[in-house]
UPF0178 protein STAUR_6745 (Stigmatella aurantiaca), 151 residues
Amino acid sequence: MKIWVDADACPGPVRDIIVRAAQRLQVPTVFVANKRLNLPRSEFVSSVQVGAGLDVADGHIAAAAQAGDLAITQDIPLAALLVPKSVVVIDPRGELFSEENIAERLSVRNFMQELRDSGVMTGGPGGFSAQDRQQFAASLDRELTRLRKKP
């Protein structure tokens, strides 16, 4: 099992939680971004710097992640590629993407994109709160525990 992190827009507190979990549980973790990342030295934490461009990091993660891995991303189209591969996907606020909800989430995301493309101001997510950090940490621990128990 590996943890894959779509690191281009990953909040700092989430990155710190992931690093601590990777070290504590000794799970190989790969942060993928199109820029250089400052990560602590660890035998369990690494980074891959991909070229600049739209969805390059997503493409790397989609190609490399395998069934039984865990991915952290807020990119719903990436989640829609990973979920059918039996990759567990959670977003930085702790929401689990699943076979049951990914089609709806992708549909809503595409609808909102159409609105934005037509000039409608839709607003974005609120600021990242302490509650968001706590919810992410709980989801990460729950999913890592579940994945580690799988034969």
Remarks:
- Residues 3-149 form a domain with the Rossmann fold fold (CATH 3.40.50).
